[in-house]
């Protein structure tokens, strides 16, 4: 990309991430409230001059007990398990670093940023969603952006880390897709290839890891 376009692209990406947050992280009750306001305004407009007072109504299938496939409430509860898993993993991310787990307001803020990034990614990629370990991939990216000496960049660390995370995962996202685990592009195939390379270049280390792996995970077979 032309260097002259960097600032424009950066601003566009940051604006796009802000839109993702507004659209994907909003509470379902707020979505319902917005829908009701829209309907109420429409009714008010249509009832002008008729003498009838407009009455707000809940949009059909938009309530906490709805099972409708397009219901924001139903989607919210279906996604709650993923959100809870993200929350648990983020709290365990680099416990030795005060940046992530120091108990300070900054550490808690950093955790919230990681949660938002991973939640948005999961919602934008329903075929993969969130897989344990993604938090470990994201953490160093966010750390680097957040510690940028330029405060204007540091302030946008969350959005910048999100798009960098997406780019990094695009290279090996198939490894996170459970349905592809046993395919030529899945995680088992990748591990087997890495094992073959390690055996070729450092057989002593390879033998050590083979023993350790089989002790910890007896069912794992590297295929070498």
From TrEMBL:
Any one biological process term the GO annotation gives: intracellular protein transport
UniProt-recorded Gene Ontology molecular function terms: GTPase activator activity
Domain Rab-GAP TBC as annotated: residue spans: 63-224
InterPro entries: Rab-GAP-TBC_dom, Rab-GAP_TBC_sf
PANTHER family for the chain: RAB-GAP TBC DOMAIN-CONTAINING PROTEIN (PTHR22957:SF690), TBC1 DOMAIN FAMILY MEMBER GTPASE-ACTIVATING PROTEIN (PTHR22957)
Protein name per UniProt: Rab-GAP TBC domain-containing protein
């Amino acid at each position: 990309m032309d260097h002259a376009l960097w600032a424009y692209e950066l601003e566009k990406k940051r604006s796009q991430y802000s839109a993702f947050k507004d659209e994907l992280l909003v509470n379902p009750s707020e979505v319902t409230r917005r829908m009701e306001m829209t309907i109420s305004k429409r009714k008010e407009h249509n009832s002008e001059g008729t003498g009838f007072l407009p009455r707000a109504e809940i949009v059909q299938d938009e309530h906490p007990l709805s099972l409708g496939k397009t219901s924001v409430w139903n989607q919210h509860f279906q996604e709650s398990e993923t959100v809870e898993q993200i929350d648990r993993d983020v709290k365990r991310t680099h416990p030795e670093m005060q940046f992530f787990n120091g108990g300070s307001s900054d550490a808690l803020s950093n955790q919230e940023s990681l949660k938002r990034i991973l939640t948005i990614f999961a919602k934008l990629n329903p075929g993969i969603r969130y897989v344990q370990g993604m938090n470990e991939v994201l953490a160093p990216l966010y750390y680097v952006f957040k510690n940028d000496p330029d405060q204007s960049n540091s302030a946008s660390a969350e959005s910048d880390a999100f798009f960098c995370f997406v780019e990094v995962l695009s290279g090996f996202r198939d490894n996170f897709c459970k349905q592809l685990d046993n395919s030529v592009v899945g995680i088992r195939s990748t591990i087997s290839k890495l094992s073959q390379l390690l055996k070729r270049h450092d057989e002593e280390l390879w033998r050590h890891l083979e023993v350790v792996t089989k002790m910890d995970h007896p069912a794992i077979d590297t295929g070498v």
